[in-house]
Specification:
Length: about 425
């Protein structure tokens, strides 16, 4: 066991002493932590939908007056003799009345106005614009305005009180929602982020572990190591060191974001709670199943690293593993809105996918305690089996040089040797 700790300590220190590892960790932690302070210095109330103070509203009003969009209108029927309705519908625009369509076209062509409306009657109008943007919403808004005018005219012609009509026709439906279980809408975004986090951890650190093994093999230092230390200790030391390094790096980065947000959540209007306010049971499930899934794939990546002699050949042999990880990633993301569906239930018991599917079900769906226990047992038994097989392949593969050996061929050779 002492040899395991020796390998573990050496490998962990190699991560910590790696400049790119430290720079990336510090840079991302500082950037995310600093980003949480942005609302203190930048007005983000409109983006976040936060109520502004009186002073902020006055400043924003002055800025809007200076940045009002210019729009033109030809009102042949006199529907908009007063600008109140237009100003309410277009609060960020200023309308200019024009006498005819020729004047309107000329103003649009000369870019005196951004766009213009020729109102023919309460159900027909023409819209003029020089270059239409993808985000141009002027037509949608004006459709609603003219529809409102049509309703007023209709009520007047048929002797209907418009206020009474609106009160009855557009009466709001009231609903008191009583959620007896979990609200998937509140859980969606933090589950989405956690799925991405564990996916990136497995891909990034899995490749790093495989690269470390291949590097040792390419300079033949592995030959000395496997003869002096049991291959199981070597591989387990590398994998567990990678797991600790991953947890430390991700923990520091996310910790910086959580601490920064905790200090500034009122400035954010608590809008990031949907991502950063994660229930304790989900965090525990993420930690347990995430570490299990990481170890499972890390052992496979370690075995893959021993099957090639050059680091550029790693992706050739690891293609199958990466394909499985990608498939699991997309299946879980696509099933986030259906956490109790059959695909997610199946994935929550498979060792190749339970690391992300199970904590999603815990956070968003209905899952029994026995299901969590069974899934965890299957996952960690699979980790032990994967580690044992990977150690065998590791010892066999490190002494082979030349062309890359596929994982399937290595398993066949291992079976023959047994």
């Amino acid at each position: 066991m002492r040899r395991f700790w020796t390998v573990f300590e050496f490998e962990l220190l190699s991560y910590i002493k790696n400049k790119s590892f430290m720079i990336t960790t510090i840079l991302l932690a500082v950037l995310l932590g600093a980003a949480m302070f942005l609302p203190r210095f930048i007005d983000m109330s409109e983006i976040l939908g936060i109520e502004q103070t009186v002073e902020e509203k006055e400043d924003a009003s002055k800025e809007k007056e200076e940045e009002l969009a210019k729009l033109g209108i030809v009102d042949e029927q006199g529907f908009f003799t007063e600008k109140v309705m237009l100003e309410q519908a277009f609060p960020d625009a200023e309308f200019t009345y024009m006498k005819d369509v020729d004047e309107l076209k000329k103003a649009v062509e000369n870019e005196e106005v951004e766009a213009g409306f020729l109102v023919k009657d309460d159900l027909n109008y023409e819209y003029y614009v020089l270059n239409r943007d993808i985000t141009d919403e002027n037509q949608i808004i004006f459709n609603e305005v003219l529809s409102l005018v049509h309703k007023q005219i209709y009520c007047a012609e048929n002797g209907i009180d418009y206020a009474t009509f609106v009160e009855g026709y557009e009466a709001a439906v009231e609903c008191e929602e009583q959620i007896l279980g979990k609200d998937a809408e509140d859980s969606y975004w933090y589950c989405y982020v956690l799925v991405i986090v564990i996916f990136m951890m497995i891909i990034m650190y899995g490749v790093m572990i495989a690269t470390a093994v291949t590097t040792e093999k390419s300079n033949r230092s592995i030959e000395v190591l496997v003869t002096s230390i049991d291959s199981t200790y070597l591989l387990f030391g590398k994998v567990f060191a990678g797991a600790v390094a991953a947890v430390v790096q991700v923990g520091l980065i996310l910790g910086a974001a959580l601490v920064g947000y905790g200090m500034n959540h009122t400035y954010w209007g608590d809008k990031l709670d949907i991502i950063l306010d994660i229930p304790g049971n989900v965090l525990v499930a993420f930690a347990i199943f995430g570490i299990g899934g990481f170890l499972f794939y890390a052992f496979l990546y370690g075995a893959v690293g021993a099957l090639v002699s050059k680091t550029e050949d790693i992706n050739k042999v690891a293609g199958g593993i990466q394909m499985v990880i990608m498939i699991v990633y997309f299946v879980v993301l696509f099933q986030l809105q259906n956490p109790d569906g059959l695909p997610m239930k199946v994935c929550s018991f498979l060792p190749v996918s339970s690391y992300s599917a199970m904590f999603v079900r815990i956070g968003m769906g209905s899952v029994a305690t026995w299901e969590i226990a069974v899934s965890a047992v299957i996952l960690f038994v699979s980790v032990f089996v994967a580690g044992w097989i990977a150690a065998k392949i590791y010892r066999m593969g490190t002494l082979r040089y030349g062309n890359p050996i596929s994982l399937s061929k290595a398993l066949k050779d291992l079976k023959k040797a047994d």
